[in-house]
Amino acid sequence: MARGERCLVGITGAPGVGKSTFTADLAARFDPPPPVVGMDGFHLGNDHLIEIDLLHRKGAHYTFDAWGYVAVLERISRQNADETVYVPQFDRSIEDSIAAAVPVAFTDRLVLTEGNYLLLDLPPWHRIRELLSMSVYLELDEETRLDRLIRRHVEFGKTQAHAERHVQESDQVNAHLIAGSKHNADFVVDYAAGS
């Protein structure tokens, strides 16, 4: 950054580990705060997930527009001076994405991106690593992480029983896949803030 180069930092980890909180805390340390490109903005739309019978697995790596996410990160990494890259943002209150909600200007020297699958070895996710200046993998003890996940699902409308079932049948399956990508991280951080 001191040389005037773009720095793209990726923050990843299992569902409920605190990626969004960590990223927001990190962004707040800069003036002005850097733009945050959330992988969740690339969720496939709920209507489409219903159509292809995958709404129950929303959050799995195959329920994202992974190619679109990679393409946006590639655009950001080679951005032209006269170009603003607009990226979608996920809105938990509607459980869907809002298009072109976050502008990334050429003058933004630091850009943060966060999501579950940044370090996955599966295509096209594997292309992300080479675009990142640095990657951070967050860890948290399982009891706290699972409790956070269940509380979050309940907060956004699921019953306690439905939330617990979703965590075991979907979020935990995703968490095991994500854990297999930890070795690709530049840094591993035990993150307990935002409990």
Description of the molecule:
- It is a single chain.
- This protein has a single domain (7-190), classed as Rossmann fold (3-Layer(aba) Sandwich), CATH 3.40.50.
- The protein has a 5-stranded parallel sheet. Strands 3-4 form a two-stranded antiparallel sheet.
- With 195 residues, it is of the alpha/beta class.
- The chain is built from 5 helices and 7 strands, in the order βαβααββββααβ.
- Helix content is 31%, strand content 21%.
Give the N-to-C terminal Cα separation.
31 Å
Strand order of the largest sheet: 2-5-1-6-7
CATH superfamily: P-loop containing nucleotide triphosphate hydrolases
Question: Multimeric state of these chains?
Answer: single chain
The fold-level CATH name is Rossmann fold
Class by alpha and beta content: alpha/beta
E-strand count:
7
The level-1 CATH class = Alpha Beta
CATH architectural arrangement? 3-Layer(aba) Sandwich
Report the sheet with the most strands, covering strand number, pairing sense and barrel closure. 5 strands, parallel
Residue share in β-strands:
15-25%
> Which word captures the global form?
globular
Q: What are the low-pLDDT stretches, counting only 5+ consecutive residues below 50?
A: none
What is the count of DSSP helices, taking H or I runs of 4+ residues? 5
Rounded radius of gyration (Å)? 16 Å
